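dumping this here so i dont lose it again. seq + smiles for ribulose-5-phosphate
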Amino acid sequence: MAVTAKIAPSMLSSDFANLASEAERMLNCGADWLHMDIMDGHFVPNLTIGAPVIESLRKHTKAYLDCHLMVTNPLDYVEPMGKAGASGFTFHVEVSKDNWQELVQRIKSKDMRPGVALKPGTPIEEVYPLVEGENPVEMVLVMTVKPGFGGQKFMPEMMDKVTLPFISCLFLCYFLEVRTLRKKYPSLDIEVDGGLGPSTIEMAASAGANCIVAGSSVFGAAEPANVISLMRKSVNDNQKSS
Ligand SMILES: O=C(CO)[C@H](O)[C@H](O)COP(=O)(O)O
């Protein structure tokens, strides 16, 4: 089964004081999902929003809220996030090795879609059991920057987790790990997050990523709709040719 493109502007780059109108603006520009970064100031060195803000935003939109939990204790967030109206709940594998089964089961019981994320440097093999288990996650999020802040430079070596491109005319096996992920799981949603935009989308899409999180490149664009549509086209073209 072919995967579909999901373009998810990262609301971390929005004007938080006008979150509802920023969300509406992105949806009007063609966004499929709204990416919400939940940071606890412990798992990552930044503190953002939590369930109360998701609950407030939910009153203004029916959109899919793709929530990325950069927190040390994701289990503590399942109940409040479910109640608040989160659609997707993506937790980090680095803090869930012992309880991911319970976590996935609880996320599903709250009608959210479970996903697992990994930081740069975490071996891709660590997510295999979560994708192949009896009660699997439905998305893998590959971070292409160190989580914590928007506007960082894209890390090509993390894209190695999705494809095997030529870089500077050299055969560099940068994308071996993620290419492996797509090869292993043809119908899995694979999301990439960090430094994605017009100059990096082709690399991500050819590697097999279909869910694209983009903050500064979308919010910083004069015409966000053009950036969103360009990224969607790149994913769709690569999916057709794969
Ligand atoms: O999760 C994140 C940071 O932890 C952000 O979603 C991500 O970095 C997006 O921002 P940008 O597209 O500007 O890199």
